[in-house]
Amino acid sequence: MKLQAKCQVCGAKNNWVPSQANIKGKLLWSAGYACDSCGNQMEIDDIGFMPIELRKMIFDRDGKFSIKAAERIDDISSVKIKQILRREFSLDLIKTKSICVNNHSGFLSGTYTEMSWLRSILDSLHLSLAIERTDDAGDEILDLISLVK
Fold it and tell me: From CA 63, how far away is CA 134, in angstroms rounded?
């Protein structure tokens, strides 16, 4: 997938290049281009989740990832994970209940950076959480964005 923008100086079409970062516990995103015709540069950025179109570009480029426990999570830790996610993302009980922490493929999916950010949010629980590429199984795992949007 490509998302194009018209250069504000010369009108040439350019492809946006998206990126994300997890810096000091904040999820940041940006997208930009440098015009091949005139050299004009454009960049947009924000804190939080990036627009869906840019996120799809990252999936196409880097793949989809999930966060999963290295071993089965006990009931108490499962509840704590759900409490943290509920508080962090202002989830209602129905969305919170939809998170299956002990899914063998992972319990939430998204971009690598989103999963890294999510793992940093859950660090206080001292669980062994892994981030794995899940391109094939990714549709079976609850997408992080579906919880928060």
Answer: 8
